[in-house]
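Let's practice the habit of predicting before peeking. Look at the sequence and jot down your guess about where helices and strands might fall. Then scroll down.
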Amino acid sequence: MKKILIVLLALVLAGSLFTMTGCKKDGGEIIVFTNAFFAPFEYYDGTDIVGVDIDIMNMVGKDMGKTVKYENKDFGTLIDYVSDGQLCDCSAAGFTITDERAEKVNFSMTYYTSIQYVIVAKNAMTVNTANDDAECFYWSQLANKEIGVQLDTTGNIYVDGEIEGWEEDEPGELTGTNATCTEYEDAQLAYAALKAGQIDCVVVDELPAKFLIKNDTTTYEAYPLYYNADTATLEEYGIAVNKNQPELLAAINKVLQGLIQDVDDNNNNGIQRLVMKHFNLIG
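Done guessing? Here is the structure:
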């Protein structure tokens, strides 16, 4: 089923998704579009956009001697903004790298591997143990549930595909089970709906899931989503760069490579330490 995700992503991303607004770029700036509701990678601290991706791009700006500016946009518009290249140079937004997206933009090297998670009320579902010893939920456990997702994310595509059936000869795990998919503009709104009792669970990437429940762990829990005891919903993150920006792409990859190779005594690389910082685990 996972292999069909790429086909569906092509349909989601097809066509123009935005209307051009704003000013032309300045050559001394790097304009980064993001969706600032995907903590810890990007989120608001007051009126400032902060996060792991923001820290990375600030390092890129310093390395290139340029000012970095950030604008919050709807997630579903970001790839097309980058592809067009008139108003932004790149997008850092916890993007899963796919072939279809790569037809429109260049992606940086992979800097984080994620997995889809399910957030539910404590003890609302039985926690399984996969063959890799990970505690997890299975797709079959989402039958008959109202599932909240962030619009246009891979979690959205996964859930829609499972409910509707990926293709005739490979029906989704949730086909015909009365499971429903409710889309929200961001993961925070989906989580708020869960807490309000409006939906049964939220499907979202690993770290945003952990970030959302970090102050609510006595009431809510989150575990990885597996197809079965052998198969998890894995995906890799990259930063999306306009195809006419090879210098910027090289600078981003240089910074990412440096962070990945910078392993401390606890075996945490620079990316992992940024994640820990935004979880307030280190100063």
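How did you do? The mean pLDDT is 89.
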